[in-house]
């Protein structure tokens, strides 16, 4: 294992603390990842109450099954995001299947399309939140404030070449939201679920 492959110390320590049953560790885990979990769940489900339920389920699972996370497999953030995605998609499918069983509009194919669409949206959100701040800042200026690369460069205080590079890299990362087998994609976060 190379130095680059070694999981961050915080991730390893947190996993050990959860395994020992330290309640304070669960609080720290929640403080660090609750907004990520709730945001991803809400993106998939489109419902505040359902997102709250998935958020509780994710942290309950992390507390009850701390050994399910293996620091050698990747960052804790990625594991939490994948767990969130899996539980949210499971809940979305269950709700959609129940609605279909009770004569709701649509078909099983429509439900799978909805799940795929929600998965791509959730992956895009995860990518944006996980990308380095300089890339995210450039994308936010270009997208939300409608800045071109020259205006983005001026706003960020970088060269135009650097602004173009940041925008290009950010867009390339976002393009992987549609890839189900994207490199470094969190397991379970992608177009196919």
From TrEMBL:
RNA polymerase sigma-70 region domain location: 29-95
InterPro entries: RNA_pol_sigma-70-like, RNA_pol_sigma-70_dom, RNA_pol_sigma70_r2, RNA_pol_sigma_r2, RNA_pol_sigma_r3/r4-like, WH-like_DNA-bd_sf
A Pfam family of this chain: Sigma70_r2
Keyword annotations of the record: Sigma factor, Transcription, Transcription regulation
Gene3D superfamilies: 1.10.1740.10, Winged helix-like DNA-binding domain superfamily/Winged helix DNA-binding domain
Annotated family: Belongs to the sigma-70 factor family. ECF subfamily.
Name of this chain's protein: Sigma-70 family RNA polymerase sigma factor
